[in-house]
Amino acid sequence: MQPLKLTASHLPTIPVSFITRSVALKLVQLPDDKAEIFKPLSPPDQAAYLGYLTSWNATKTDGAACDPESATKLSMDVKFKNYKQTTQFITDVMAISQPLRHHVWFENHYTTTKVVLQTGYLDKLTAIDFRMAELIKLYRQAAEQS
User: Which domains does the chain have, with CATH numbers?
Assistant: First the structure.
C-alpha cells in the first residue's frame, strides 16, 4: 500500500453558506481505510495544512509556539459575545467530533474558549486533527454569518 499524500483537496470544500449545525454532522465522513487518517503527517504536509488553516496556531506539546513543521498540537482561541454562545459552540464541536472519534480539548473562560487538537496517543498531528480543524473553521464561519 502506498502512503497517503495529503493535500488541501482532502479537506471539505463545501460552501460556507451550506454549513449549519444540522448539516455539519453530514460532513463528518472517514475514509474506508481509517488507519491512514490516524498516521502522523510529514513535516512538509503539516506546514502545507497550517498554511491553509490560517486561524489555527502550531504549538508544541507544552503549548509553546513553534514552526509548523515541528508542531504536535493545533490551537485556536475563540471569543464569543456571551456565555450561551460559548457553551453552544463547545456542545456543537463535541457533536461534530464524536463520529470522528476525536477528542477535542477545551479551555473555557466564560466568553473565551481555547480549542486544542492533537492525536494524543501519538503526541503528533495526523490527518484527523486537520479534518477536525477544517470542520471547526467552517462551523465558525457559518455561525458568524447567522
Answer: 37-145 (3.30.1360.20)
